[in-house]
Amino acid sequence: MTATIPTVTLNTGTRMPMLGYGVFQIPAEDTEQAVLAALETGYRMLDTAASYQNEEAVGRAIRSSGIPRDDLFVTTKLFIQSNGEKTTRQAFNTSLSRLGLDHVDLYLIHQPFGDYYGEWRVMEELHAQGLARAIGVANFYPDRLADLILHNEIVPAVNQIETHPFFQRQADQDFMAGRGVQIESWGPFAEGRNNLFTDPVLTAIASAHGKSVAQVVLRWLTQRGVIVIPKSVRKDRMAQNMDIFGFDLSADEMASIAALDTGASLFFDHRDPEAAIRLGARTID
Questions:
Q1: Could you tell me which residues are beta bridge partners of residue 7?
Q2: Alpha carbon of 282 to those of 69, 111, 254: distances in Å?
Q3: Distance (Å, rounded) from C-alpha 255 to C-alpha 268?
């Protein structure tokens, strides 16, 4: 594992880097070069999903890089249309084939809809067989996460959720921590919404440390114990996003950022029936 990136130990004993490279919304035709650039920069954790439709490109980049498999941490995700016990294993095998790997380090249920109980039973089997070294979920609010934990054998290792300065999820993180579930952020920069990159609080803190707003946001998250997977297709920004562990934010600075929380999603609320309908109706090839 890359020495400059700290790791956390998941409830399976698997060690996961605190910072990785996400490929959401990178077109398949650009993904291979982007992932190769990230790996050359020093990233060793890669996050993709069946619904991103770029798993094959991620796999090609892994093979082209020449980096030993054991030095990498690879996450992919199961989408809703592959729900239930009958199709989950098939969907997993398809992802594994597209990636060209014999196992993944983390396999996530991508959305808290459909027959996620059936999916979880199959994922428990995949974990027992060593095909998924850790299993977890994404976008689960505490009520659904508690329900899944109470009625199954394996506690999810990770819950990947929208987490950024304007939707901080501290209560959710506290709930997860009490049950051995690691929080992971998607959208750490809120895709630039609410003028994140010019926010006066964040820019003042960045100026004080000689860092960018992006670096301050990533440091704020990792200092909270939140795993991050920022995305950029520019190699200079990939390097900048990695260079966040050589400084610490003060308690006052952490408190100033905490005051930015709006307590609401900037994208969509998974508890909204309309969101469930839209996501449930979406299909992927």
A1: 17
A2: 33, 12, 38
A3: 26
Q: How confident is the model at residue 82 (pLDDT cuts 50, 70, 90)?
A: low
- Look at residues 49, 8, 1, 2 and name the one whose alpha carbon lies nearest to residue 181: 8
Listed in sequence order, the residues at least 6 apart from 39 whose beta carbon sits closer than 8 Å to its beta carbon are 61, 62, 65, 67
d(CA 277, CA 183): 26
Sorted by where each begins, the domain ranges of the chain are: 7-281
Please tell me the pTM assigned to this model.
0.95
CATH class in words for 7-281: alpha beta
Cα–Cα distance for residue pair 111/117, rounded to 1 Å = 12
Amino acid at 269: D
Residue 181 CB neighbours (<10 A): 25
Catalytic residue numbers?
Answer: 52
Among positive and negative, which fits the CA dihedral 167, 170, 175, 178? positive
Q: Contact, 73 vs 105, CB < 8 A?
A: yes
From residue 149, how far is each of 9, 144, 153, 155 by CA, in Å? 19, 9, 7, 5
For 121-160, the pLDDT digits (tens) are 999 999 999 999 999 999 999 999 999 999 999 999 999 9
Q: pLDDT per residue over 245-274, tens digit each?
A: 999 999 999 999 999 999 999 998 999 999
Tokens encoding 135:
């299993």
Q: Please state at what angle helix 170-177 crosses helix 142-150, rounded to 10 degrees.
A: 10
Q: Which pair of tokens denotes residue 267?
A: 């994208």
pLDDT in tens, 191-242: 999 999 999 999 999 999 999 999 999 999 999 999 999 999 999 999 999 9
Asked if residue 135 lies in contact with residue 161, where contact means CB atoms within 8 angstroms, the answer is: no
Task: Classify 41 in phi/psi space as left (phi over 0), alpha (psi -120 to 50) or beta.
Answer: alpha
